[in-house]
Amino acid sequence: MIEWNAATIKDFQHTLLDWYDQEGRDLPWRHDHEPYHVWVSEIMLQQTQVQTVIPYYERFMDWFPTVADLANAPEARLLKAWEGLGYYSRVRNMQRCAQQLLADYDGQWPQTAAGLEALVGIGPYTAGAIASIAFNQPVPAVDGNAYRVFSRLLKIDDDIAKPQTRQVFEQAITRIMPHDRPGDFNQAIMDLGSSYMTARQPDTAHSPVKRFNQAYLDGQELAYPVKTKKPRPKPVAYVAVLAQMGDQWLMVQRPSTGMLGNLWTVPLIKVDELDLEEDASTADLLAAVTAYFKREYRLILTAKMLKLRPVTHTFTHQKWTIQLIGGQVQPADLAYFAGKGVLLAELDQLPMPKVQEKIFNRANVH
DNA sequence: GAGCCGTGGGG
DNA sequence: TCCCCAAGGCT
């Protein structure tokens, strides 16, 4: 068994940081330690891979170079910058945080993890990352990489799906991390976790820290980390109504709470909410959709079933199957309609989720 | 504490 | 097709 005494810890720190100095990745947000840059990158990287984030980060810095630019941006522009990244509340919380910084903090970032965690959208991981990288505070940044790396090194078998496990890792990492280069240490762990110490196919034989990896030395690497699995996505049936009013498409904005908050789609109706009988026919479905339009929007819809394969889209815990309906509405007063008519050429100005892109593609709307 | 909240990639 | 994973936070 590896004994993590003071000498081992020093050895590990130097081995890891020497490797990081040689092999650490050159990423756009590592060009300086500006808290704004660190913050934006960390929020984007939540549950999202580096290669996905890079182009989004570059464009975001182009559009919103400072905290003030972000605080004052129109929300549609903000969501457009985030379109396709997912977890859209992240960017709305970022704007709230930016406004909070300007209003209540005189534009000055708190420099401690506890102070940062008080801000909207910044949890324990992101607070640790910003505090260590931007402000040189010796605090851990416990993300999926840190869980994986240290569970293997130290053979910690607490379930990382449980919130209470975080403190076990925070204590262990706090004891091991150096006080002179905490930000580099935390980032080195992330680079390690995404290269040699991946979840599925680790290459520990070539890892710079393999001699510190107790799970590897015991041939039990793939048993770590211990994590209970999540339930499968629940199937949900929808109809999407591709309705034209003259040369405009009817688009609705989703509510600010819940899935895909404030993004735009064609009217999406949960089939459950149409109160259909079990043996309902296609005609029954179309009649129910027409009634829905009249009731909810005060619009007269002429609907027809589109002979297209349903669109399927899987979210973290819902799997949508979406039957497509085409139709036209009579030119009308849209006062009761929770959306607007949009010309085809203007559609790309609305922030839309991926599922909407799939719907338009299936219906050949371009 | 458990459920909610997106998307892309790999096996 | 399905499952799991990827720099989590909020309620």
UniProtKB/TrEMBL annotation:
Which EC numbers characterise this protein's activity in its record?
Answer: 3.2.2.31
Q: Which GO BP terms sit in this record?
A: base-excision repair; mismatch repair
Q: Does the keyword Metal-binding apply?
A: yes
This protein's superkingdom? Bacteria
Required co-factors: [4Fe-4S] cluster
Q: Which UniProt keywords apply?
A: 4Fe-4S, DNA damage, DNA repair, Glycosidase, Hydrolase, Iron, Iron-sulfur, Metal-binding
UniProt catalytic activity:
Hydrolyzes free adenine bases from 7,8-dihydro-8-oxoguanine:adenine mismatched double-stranded DNA, leaving an apurinic site
Which residue range or ranges hold the HhH-GPD domain?
44-195
Report TM segments.
Answer: none
Q: Does the keyword 4Fe-4S apply?
A: yes
Instruction: Read off the SMART domains from this record.
Output: ENDO3c
Report which residue ranges the record marks as coiled coil.
none
Question: In the record, what terms sit under GO molecular function?
Answer: 4 iron, 4 sulfur cluster binding; 8-oxo-7,8-dihydroguanine DNA N-glycosylase activity; adenine/guanine mispair binding; metal ion binding; oxidized purine DNA binding; purine-specific mismatch base pair DNA N-glycosylase activity
- What family does this belong to? Belongs to the Nth/MutY family.
PANTHER family (alphabetical): ADENINE DNA GLYCOSYLASE
The protein's role, per its UniProt record:
Adenine glycosylase active on G-A mispairs. MutY also corrects error-prone DNA synthesis past GO lesions which are due to the oxidatively damaged form of guanine: 7,8-dihydro-8-oxoguanine (8-oxo-dGTP).
Question: What is this protein's name?
Answer: Adenine DNA glycosylase
